[in-house]
Amino acid sequence: MILTQLPAEFQAAKPILDTIEAAGYEAYFVGGCVRDTILGKPLHDVDIATSAFPAEVKQLFKRTVDTGIEHGTVMILDHGNGYETTTFRTESGYQDFRRPDQVTFVRSLQDDLKRRDFTINALAMTANGKVIDLFDGLADLEQGVLRAVGIAEARFHEDALRMMRAVRFASQLGFTIEPQTEQAIADNATLLTKIAVERTRVEWEKLLMGQHPIAGLTGLLTTGLYRYMPAMADQEGLLRQLMALPTWHLTSIESTWTLLSWTMRLTDEAAVRHLLKMWRTSNELISHVTTAVKAVAALKRAGRLTAQENFYTGLDALTTANQVATILGFGQDQTELARAYADLPIHDKHELAINGGDLVKAKLVTPGPMMGQILTACLQAVITKQVANQQDDLLDFAGMVADSKNH
Ligand SMILES: Nc1ccn([C@@H]2O[C@H](COP(=O)(O)OP(=O)(O)OP(=O)(O)O)[C@@H](O)[C@H]2O)c(=O)n1
């Protein structure tokens, strides 16, 4: 196969390959970028593999950075772009099921490609668009099949994360996992526990955000791989519930965790926090998801959110909540929701036209718990448009609140 119309990313990188080849070495585009080009999908990054050893690559280019020199990776800087160039290599060892104990640089493209995970990821392409297909990856791309290169079990022993990658690609591409590859995942699923939670999490999130999540979830279910994901050992029911939802497409990491929390019926904050902690997410994500889950509950209860709920949820978590609620069948029109949010008189408590100092100056209160209560009452009155966000109006209102509290 020769690709005649190469995406701009390849055209920009072509001079790099040309320079390496002019010096007598081989150089190819490899991996995901070749796969995605053939599928007509946008590219994330362009990876280059070469027979030149790292020191040889560095001699050919003025500006390089040693991004992973021990694994053979050198970044070549060119016109504001950075291109990761990795020397052909074989790997051995893998005692920890995560990474090789030893990397050996080699001069053969075939040796490099045969250690890769799936046939569709083991394609290489020349600078002129000629696809090198040593493991029938093109046929698998055509037929929508994920097949391990060579002996599947060996590929998963080398890096157990590849089992998660299989189900993630199934979801992103709508591919089916070839039977022997699937069997090898079922047989080696326990190895997933050797993988850092953070790496498994990234694949889980990508699976849930794929265009064909049912394909990915089916893979998890039939292989039993889900049992070895954090907090998932007894979650067959969760997977089945997700699979039973009408067609869905999540577009953010926040939405994935909100949908999971809701489907697992984790509506109180502590339970959501516990789940996300087990998956080692950031505190920022935990805070977003706990807020969004509350908003999903409010949407379910009332069909729409009050001004106060809109204010305290914030537009980002509102958008997350509404995406999830829409999948569950009780979302609001997103434009209407954004309009209701924009219509709030203020969007942050710091925008309130009075503060504690103003209350003291007006002799309405002395610093203490009462001050906080009065400010909260003012905030709520402004959000619900009972009082305009003007200092005079708010001081009048605060005076009334203070009186009522003193009596
Ligand atoms: N565990 C892994 C990870 C990567 N690879 C190889 O390294 C390439 C690049 O890996 P990566 O950038 O992680 O993934 P992509 O396949 O490019 O896909 P995506 O960018 O969607 O993650 C893959 O295509 C594959 O050939 C592999 O064999 N085993």
3D structure, described in words:
With 407 residues, the chain is of the alpha+beta class. The protein has four domains: 1-143, Beta Polymerase, domain 2 (2-Layer Sandwich), CATH 3.30.460.10; 149-244, Orthogonal Bundle (Hydrophobic Seed Protein), CATH 1.10.110; 252-344, Methane Monooxygenase Hydroxylase, Chain G, domain 1, CATH 1.20.58; 349-406, Serum Albumin, Chain A, Domain 1 (Orthogonal Bundle). Helices cover 52% and strands 10% of the residues. The protein is built from 19 helices and eleven strands. The protein has helices at residues 8-22, 32-39, 54-60, 109-113, 137-143, 152-158, 161-173, 179-188, 197-208, 213-223, 236-244, 253-263, 269-278, 283-302, 307-328, 334-342, 356-361, 369-383, 391-406; strands at 27-30, 47-50, 64-68, 73-78, 81-87, 89-92, 102-105, 124-125, 131-132, 145-146, 176-177. It has a seven-stranded mixed β-sheet with strand order 3-4-5-2-1-8-9. The chain has a two-stranded antiparallel sheet with strand order 6-7. A hairpin with a 4-residue loop joins strand 3 (64-68) and strand 4 (73-78). Helix 7 (161-173) packs parallel to helix 9 (197-208) and helix 13 (269-278) crosses helix 14. The longest helix is centred in the C-terminal third of the chain and has 22 residues, at 307-328. It is elongated. The mean pLDDT is 95. Cytidine-5'-triphosphate binds at residues 31-32, 44, 47, 116-117, 121-122, 159, 161-162, 165. Residues 31-32, 44, 47, 116-117, 121-122, 159, 161-162, 165 line the site of cytidine-5'-triphosphate.
